[in-house]
Amino acid sequence: MNLAALRKQYHTQLCEKIIRLSKEGGIEYPNFADRDNVSSRTIAWGIVRRMDYTANYQAISGQTVGKLFETLTKDFLAATLVFLQHLHPGQWYYSTEEPISAFAQYEHLTNFSRLVEQNNDLATVLGRDYIVQPDIVIGRRPVSDADINREQIFVSHEDGIAQLTPLRENNAEHAPYILHASISCKWTLRSDRGQNARLEALNLIRNRKGHTPHIAAVTAEPLPTRIASLALGTGDLDCVYHFALPELQAAIIETGNVDQMDMLTTLVDGKRLRDISDLPFDLIA
Question: Least packed by Cβ within 10 Å: which of 9, 54, 102, 268?
Fold first, then answer.
């Protein structure tokens, strides 16, 4: 199976399990569009037509949509990265359930959290939102000395060196996984959803002890002007990824919406927006 087939499979799963048609006041639209915005509805329709969508009016809650979007995106990444294993060596862990404190760069936050919970003054000053639970995490398992020494004896415990790196499994009794990537999934970008992703990213950057993981966001938002609220600027997110960027581009061209096309061009040419198929490669770069 190649990348195009895996991407198609991802879209098929989204169409079958998440995308629904809503009908209110005679207006029919896909559930990642804004009912009150004509451009949003028109672009969303253009995307689903290009994904061979079969109409489904069965109700689905926003919370269910969010969790399924996370799970299906995680599964897509895990499936694609299997084929890139030769470029991405190691044992990898994918989850939608783990807080960052489970990983090597952030395990110190567990004890810090206990202190804050026991001291209201600290809680008032520091808050309680520094332990992020990303929508998707990718962790790397530390490697054993046997793996390191596969070609030749390169390290040994007796040397007394390289004993602090978390990548070496022998350095800890219970070596935690290393956080390789944190990915935020936003089905749509309305209200403050984009800013929540930025806050999570900044917490990951500021609270780490070790290297910064890849920090990305995936969205199905049809309006580039709304995607810009998350994608524009640098310093927090690596990049934003659209679940169907070529389909989005074609849909906007079809509408003739110059403002949305201009913003989309700015985001893509400015290297702030890419397709979901680009994400696996960026995660191993």
Answer: 54
Instruction: Determine the distance from the C-alpha atom of residue 44 to the mean position of all C-alpha atoms in its chain, rounded to a whole number.
Output: 21
Instruction: Quote the crossing angle between the two packed helices 224-231 and 258-269, to the nearest 10°.
Output: 30
124-132: long-range pairs with CB below 8 Å, 24+: 129/199, 129/203, 130/203, 130/207, 131/99, 131/100, 131/101, 131/106, 132/99, 132/100, 132/182, 132/200, 132/203, 132/204
Residue owning tokens 């500021």? 206
3-state secondary structure of 35: coil
pLDDT in tens, the chain (285 residues): 899 999 999 999 999 999 999 988 889 999 999 999 999 999 999 999 999 999 999 999 999 999 999 999 999 999 999 999 999 999 999 999 999 999 999 998 887 666 556 566 555 545 555 567 899 999 999 999 999 999 999 999 888 999 999 999 999 888 999 999 999 999 999 866 677 888 899 989 999 999 999 999 999 999 999 999 999 988 899 999 999 999 999 999 999 999 999 999 999 999 999 999 999 999 998
Angle between the N-to-C axes of helices 193-206 and 224-231, in degrees from 0 to 180, rounded to the nearest 10: 20
Helix (H) or strand (E) holding 39: helix 38-50
Longest dimension (CA), the chain: 75
pTM over 0.85: yes
Q: How far apart are CA 208 and CA 41, in angstroms?
A: 41
Domain ranges of the chain: 62-141+177-284
Sole residue written with tokens 């896909």: 30
